[in-house]
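[Meeting: bench + compute handoff]

Bench side (C.D.) handed over the final construct sequence. Compute side (W.E.) agreed to return the predicted structure before the next meeting so the bench team could plan truncations. Sequence as handed over:
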Amino acid sequence: MPRRRSSAALLALLTGAILLLGGCASMDPAFETRDAHPGLESTVHDSMTMLPQPASPVVTAVYQFRDQTGQYKRKERGSTFSRAVTQGGTAILMDALADSDWFRPIERKGLSNLTQERDIIRSIRQQYEGDRAQPLSPLLFAGILLEGGIIGFDSNVISGGGGFRLFSIGGSGEYRRNQVTVYLRAVSTQTGEVLKTVHTTKTIISQQLQGSATRFIAPNLFLETEAGISYNEPKTLAVTEAIDAAVRDLTIEGMRDGLFSPADTAAARAVIDRYEESKARAAQRDYFDRLLQPDNRSGLGVEVGGGGNILQGDVQGTSFNPSGALALRYPLSPRWALGLQNTAGRISAAGDFGETVLSTELNMTYYFAPRAQFTPFLRASGGVVTQFPEPYRLTNTASLLGGGSVGVEYMVNEDLGVSTAFEVRYTIDDALDNERVGSFNDSLWG
C-alpha cells in the first residue's frame, strides 16, 4: 500500500510539472524559431499617422538624434560596453518623420556619402558625355532642423514583488519599471530660433513569475520541480514609441501655434482639443505615474464611519462588537489634518457584562501621499471615554484614553474619500470594564 501511494504521488507531481512547463511554453513559443518579418509598430504610431493632412509637408533635416545618457547596460557580473538604449535614434526619427506625412525628410546624417556619390556621378557623366553632360538636380534645403536626443534612461524607478510558500510548494513574482525620456526641438534654418520643444516619457516593464514544488516520494528519492517565465518589454520599441509620440506632439503643437498649416482646420481643431485634454491629465501625475489631486481635502470635512471593536481588559470571553463614528476634520497643511471625533459602540464579554461606551477624542492625521488618489496615513488621538449615558466625570464614570491608528484612504474625487484603518486605544486606568485586576489597563482594539 505505501508503494502504491508513492507511485501515485510521483505520477501526480510529474503530471503537474509537465502541465506547468507546457503552460509556460504555450504562453511564449520560446522553443521555436521565427522567420524574419516586418518590424512591429509602436502603440502610438497610428495616432501619429492619422493626424489631419498638411497643406504642404515641411522639408526637414536631421543631422543626428543620438543617445545622450552615456549609460551602459547593467550586468550582474563583470563589465560590458553595450549601451543601455539603442544608438539608432536618428534612423527611428527619420522613419517617424516619413510616416507622419507632415514632414519631408532630407538626408543629412550621411551627407558626406551623398555628396561623394554625386561627385562620382558628375565625373562619370563628364567622362562619357563631355560638354553635353546634364547637371544634377540641386539638393533640397531644409525649412526646419530637428535636434534633440534620448536624454534619460532611469533604471528601477519602481520595483517589487511577492511570493508564498506552503510547506514545499510555493511561487513568487517580481517586477521592475524603467523609463526612457526623449526631447525633440524644431529650429528655424532661416533665423536659428527654437520654434518648439516637446518631450515624452515611456515606461519599460520587466516581469518574472516562478513556481516550484518539492517532495520526498520515497525514503531515498526526492523530487523537485520548478517553472517560470519572464517578460521584458523591448527597449528599442520603447524608444520608438517615445520618438513617435514626440513627432506627434510636435506636429500638434505646431498646428496650435500656427507654425504648421493643416489642410482641414476643423479636423485639426478637434485633434488639438484632445491633445490639450491629455496634457491636462498628464500634468496631474507625478514621477511614478500616480494621479495627483492637488485639491484633496481642501476644507472642513465630515467623516462618517462604522466598524467594530474588541475590549482587552479583565473580563473573560470578550467579543467583537459594532461601533460607529462621526468626526470633523480640518486640514492644517496638505499632509496634516486636525480632527474631533465621537465614537459609540458596545463592549461585552461572556456572562452578563455588556456596556455601551462613548468616546470623544482630538486626533492628528498624517497623510504620506496627500495629493495621490491612494495614500496610507497615521493617526494619533487622545480624549475621554465613558459608559453611555453616564456623564463625562473623570472621578468615577470616565477615563482618559490615547492611542493611534494606521490605515489607507482612497480619494474618489477631491471632496470624497473612502478609508479603512486599524486602531488601538489605551485608557489611563483599569476601570472601563468595571474590574481592576492585574497590572495592565483596559484597551480598545478596533
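W.E. noted at the follow-up: The first strand starts at residue 58 and ends at 62. C.D. will use this when planning the next construct.
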